[in-house]
Amino acid sequence: MDNREALGSWLSGPRAAAEQMGTDFGYRGERLGLPKDGPGSLAGVGRRFVAVFVDWTLCLVIAYGLIAHRDVHASNPWTLALFGALSVLTLGTLGSTPGKRLLGLRVVGLGGGRLRIGPVVLRTVLLLLVIPAMVWDRDGRGLHDKAARSVEVRI
After folding, report:
1. What stretches of the chain show up as alpha helix (H) in DSSP?
2. Is residue 97 assigned to a domain?
3. Which of 3, 41, 61, 64 is 20 to 30 A away from residue 16, measured at CA?
4. Higher model confidence: residue 34 or residue 47?
5. pLDDT for res 50
6. Averaged over 74-95, what is the pLDDT?
7. Residue 18: per-residue pLDDT
8. 42, β-bridge pairs
């Protein structure tokens, strides 16, 4: 391996270097037993981000207009509380928040069934902390999903 190949593998990342050497990682979600695409396949990061943005915006509008009486500083903690309550209630009962439903997503357990309330609460608390949701594995699942043994799939 000459210096350019070593530098190229460093710049492209460890996955690209391993794939160049012949390692097959398969598609995202294959290790979890999920289909490659279509219903039940692993949801993409972009869709998941937009769904969280929709849910956060909905909670922000409710907090700003109805609870905090149009006081921006007072609406911030209410938005966080509403987002947590919305997530726990809708994921625990329907398996999907309004934003996820709008984008055709659902949160399920690794076995494919609906999550119980304990994992839903754990997932929501870790999501509210933000950092665990920003650390992903090679399938694109955040630490909040790994801790709750859940996966976000397409409907």
Report:
1. 3-12, 14-20, 45-62, 72-93, 98-102, 117-128, 131-134, 143-147
2. yes
3. 41
4. 47
5. 97
6. 92
7. 65
8. 153
pLDDT of residue 3: 55
Q: CA quadruple 32, 116, 147, 99: dihedral positive or negative?
A: positive
Q: How many domains does the chain have?
A: 1
- The C-alpha angle 80, 141, 132, rounded to 5 degrees, equals 40
In the 8-state DSSP scheme, what is residue 25? -
Q: Is residue 16 part of a domain?
A: no
Alpha carbon 14 to chain centroid, angstroms = 23
Alpha carbon 37 to chain centroid, angstroms: 17
Mean pLDDT of 136-141: 86
User: What mean pLDDT value characterizes the chain?
Assistant: 86
Residue pair 84/124 in contact (Cβ under 8 Å)? The answer is yes
Read off φ and ψ for residue 72, nearest 5 degrees.
-60, -45
**Residue 14: inside a domain:** no
How confident is residue 7, by pLDDT bands cut at 50, 70 and 90? Answer: low
Give CA–CA dist 106/66, Å, rounded: 28
Q: Which domain holds residue 71?
A: 37-154
Of the CA atoms within 13 Å of residue 105, those in its CB half-sphere come to 25
